[in-house]
Amino acid sequence: MTEAMVSPLCCVPRRAPTTVAPSGPLSLKSAKQHAGQPDMSIPGVPIPGGEALIGTDRPELPVDGEAPLRTQRLEPFRMDAAAVTNDRFQAFVADTGYVTEAERLGDSFVFVKLLPADAGPSRAVAEAPWWRIVEGACWHAPLGPGSATACRPDHPVVHVTWHDATAFAGWAGGRLPSEAEWEHAARGGLGDVRFPWGDEEPNDTDFFPCNIWQGRFPDENLALDGHLATAPAASFSPNGYGLYNMVGNVWEYTAQPFKVKSLKKSVRRAHAGKAGFKLSKGGSFLCHASYCYRYRIAARTGTSPDSSTSHQGFRLVYDPAPAGQGAVQ
Questions:
Q1: CATH assignment of 48-96+160-318, given 3.90.1580.10, 3.30.420.40, 3.20.20.150, 1.10.630.10?
Q2: Mind listing the pLDDT tens digit for each residue in 120-179?
């Protein structure tokens, strides 16, 4: 059983450093060498280029580096309309024989309220006891051995690490987005807004535009949005660019490191030990304003690249094909 650590400011647990690396994941290079490719036409939906907005001048969690609001020039690109699903990840595994890090390491992090009453023994994460280290939990058995029926084909794949997502991207002909690309796409053409649909706040009574927690975290999830855990990847209303679940449902990896530029000692202490972490965006079904108000576009968190959980997924972006060439396959 692997050990775990978690920052009290972060809702994403991590594996403890190990001096013995697991057998290496299928590399990006070797993944590309497999002949099979996903059967798709032009992947993703078009996202226009232009001056992208990043961050906010109304930070809720300044310690995470949400501020200030700034701009970056982007070229047009394409993005998956929804997070990568179990069905799509299964096609990747079937074609390449890829084995995820959770499968090789033998366990993954599962939110305790998802475990059935007859679940086997698991170890709680001391700083966040709602996370359990479950032996045998992985993308195709999300609650541990015998839970394959909980792996729904149209739901986002979870229990994948940043390394796993990068390997999938190499096979699929895409890449993980930058923070600027992710935020630009999430805003859906609305400009400086807090959420993909605008500025109206989700609540626990009558407005449920995304899959987040309702009730008292972590004891009671009222599931008023219809979901105790993940929702189908293409659920709820899409944003102005046709993208589903850009906030809530599952955290999404980006390509870049998690960095917070600050000279404050309190900020440096909050993020101590996060060297090598990768930036994730969007929040998840476990977020609530009273605990983890990170289902906002500008919100951000750091994720250890070898950690996997029941609320972490990803989607890809694709660069335009050069003039005269076909679409990315």
A1: 3.90.1580.10
A2: 888 888 888 999 999 999 999 999 999 999 999 999 999 999 999 999 999 999 999 999
Which residue type occupies 237?
S
Give the CA dihedral 91, 95, 101, 103, nearest 10 degrees: 80
DSSP string, 210-276: S----EETTTEE--TTS-SSPPPTT-S---TTS---SSSSSEEEEEEE-------HHHHHHTTT-TT
Residue 106 structure tokens: 């033998």
**Which phi and psi angles does 85 have, rounded to 5°?**
-95, 165
Helix, strand, coil percentages in the chain from 3-state DSSP, rounded to 5: 15, 20, 60
Do you know the residue count of the chain? 329
What ranges do the domains of the chain cover?
A: 48-96+160-318
The predicted-structure confidence for 10-33, as pLDDT tens digits, reads as follows 466 777 654 334 444 443 333 333
Retrieve residue 173's tokens: 């002909």
Residues 6+ apart with CB under 8 A from 169: 28, 175, 176, 316
